[in-house]
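Example (one chain per record):
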Amino acid sequence: MKMHLLSRFLTAAAIASAIAVCAAQATPVATRKELRRGDLAAAPGREAVSVLAEIPVGAASSRHSHPGDDLGYVLEGTIVLQVDGQPPLTLHAGDVFTTPPGRVHNARNVGTTTARALDIYIIKKGQPAVIVP
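Predicted structure:
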């Protein structure tokens, strides 16, 4: 009887430990890496900011906006782009997208590999490229 109870206790402890380890693992987080920021000769007072966005499987970019136009190209993976006030748009590698200035949006990776996109923001010189509400 004591051995049976000990066996149950050890099994329960092992399950609890496994759950704790799984819960402690970091949730995948999207990242943005600014590649270049430079003045636009054809638009004085404005600059172009090139950014590489990476979204792990199952993660999202978080709701954000940009103070200027966002021109994007999906390099790898599959994302669903949700722009406030518009229907969701599923994008695959090779697709392009735009988001208007100030429009809050979110990109969610619905594929099986890390999604990567190259974004170019056209903004007033000195402004932040990304604004998180």
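Caption: The beta strands are 31-39, 46-55, 69-76, 78-83, 89-92, 96-99, 105-109, 115-124.
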